[in-house]
Amino acid sequence: MINNKSYLSIILLIAVLTSAIRASACTSVIVSGRITKDGRPMLFKNRDTSNQNNVAVLVKGSIYRYIAIVAASDVNCESVWGGHNETGFAIINTAAYNLNGCEGKDSNGDGELMKKALETCCTLKDFEKLLNELPKPMDLNSNFGVMDAEGGCAYYETNNEKYIKFDVNDPKTAPDGYLMRTNFGMTGCRDIDRGVERYMAISDFMNDAKKKDLIDMEYLLTAAPRYLTHGLTKINLYDLMPNSLQDTKMFPFLDFIPRWSTSSVILVQGVAEGESPLHTVSWINIGWPLASISIPLVITDQDLLPSIVGRGEDGSSWLCQKAMEQKHRVFSAKTGNTHDYIDISKLINHEGTGILQHILPIEQVVIKRGKQAITWMRRHKKNNTSRINDYYNWVDHYVKQHY
Questions:
Q1: 3-state SS assignment for residue 342
Q2: Phi/psi class of residue 293: alpha, beta or left (left: φ > 0; alpha: ψ in -120 to 50)?
Q3: Around Cβ 274, how many Cβ atoms within 10 Å?
């Protein structure tokens, strides 16, 4: 356990590490189907953004339908931030501020590119063709994670002029069968790397998962966005857990995988050999993942999604709004750098009454029922609209009742 003197020293240490720049700070992982137990590859993204209000959408694109996460204010879905289409093509990104030189400039075209890719691409080759044909400069500065129904999965470190591919199926490139990216590219100006602490954290997480044989959809989806060990300091917030909800304990919450700016999580689970591309699943956690619930989304004939993740009458997601309300209880400081400090007691405590401790059992039931519906769909080799819609209706009712 950490004593009070060490505790104060830790606070000062982490405060010194605080960056003055608040920017998109996503954390991502690609896992090759060659190392998963079921042969299905995975894309994972923990998204950070200043635009906290997000929704899930199912869009009829220019060629293909797709499921994606978008900002609630983006009513025409001009930019998307992760998703998959009906051919099994999927894409995510993390901003990589070092790919256009050492100035660390951001780009504006990432979301528009991902929309274009989802509505027009089937394969990694299609995506490469899209990049090659874009007018230069492309206004891009990102690590794009891409997957297709043929088992292909790769990162594309992309700047204004070109891209460099990292094939996760290549044992020389990814000897462990997975790769991670935060906010720098391996081929960029390494003097200005950002997201290093989160890269260290996700590396620790994946290495530990590999040792414990836990690299699977459910563990990555539920544990990585709630990984409360700091990559640099190795401080585990569970070691600082207060006794009760009333035992206020403020602590700097900086450069963990989840942050104040975390707005959603998406894990796209691809298909195994011989499966229909329509059996690709986007598991999404809309809102702040420490206070929200992961739900599986698939493309069906009726183009429906659970109402709690889509746009409601006010244009926002019910679940996203509820999660943000709970987040404000955790970030309870009223003055100063309010986005940098949490009350640990409101998140986790020894009584088991913290917000995270409340939503985990609810999520466990939602995931269990979701896996049952998806397993049925895969076994019958079709998308049973009625079966999936029944699940979506159940999710809407169950989550609203128990959240």
A1: strand
A2: beta
A3: 7
| Closest CA relative to residue 104, chosen from 23, 161, 31 | 23
pTM for this prediction: 0.94
Three-class secondary structure of residue 323 per DSSP? helix
Strand extents, DSSP E, 109-261: 142-147, 153-158, 163-167, 178-181, 250-252
User: Where residue 12 falls among pLDDT bands split at 50, 70, 90?
Assistant: very low
Helix 355-379 vs helix 318-330: angle between axes, to the nearest 10 degrees?
Answer: 150
Greatest pairwise CA separation for the chain in angstroms? 61
Phi/psi for 252 (5° steps) reads -70, 130
The percentage of residues in the chain with a pLDDT greater than 90, rounded to a whole number, is 88
Q: What is the mean pLDDT of residues 136-148?
A: 97
Number of Cβ within 10 Å of residue 27's Cβ equals 30
Both tokens of 69, joined, read: 């996460």
Cβ count near 118 (within 10 Å): 27
CA-closest candidate to residue 144, choices 129, 172, 124, 161: 124
Return the SS3 of 393. helix
- Residue 399 in tokens: 């989550």
DSSP 290-319: TSS-EEEE---TT----TTTS--TTSS-HH
Q: What's the pLDDT score for residue 104?
A: 83
Asked whether 227 and 205 are in contact (CB, 8 A), the reply is: yes
φ and ψ at residue 210, rounded to 5 degrees: -65, -45
Give the pair of three-digit tokens for residue 216: 């699977």
Phi/psi of residue 156, nearest 5 degrees:
-120, 105
Phi–psi pair at 127, nearest 5 degrees: -65, -40
CA dihedral 80, 85, 91, 92 (to 10 degrees): 40
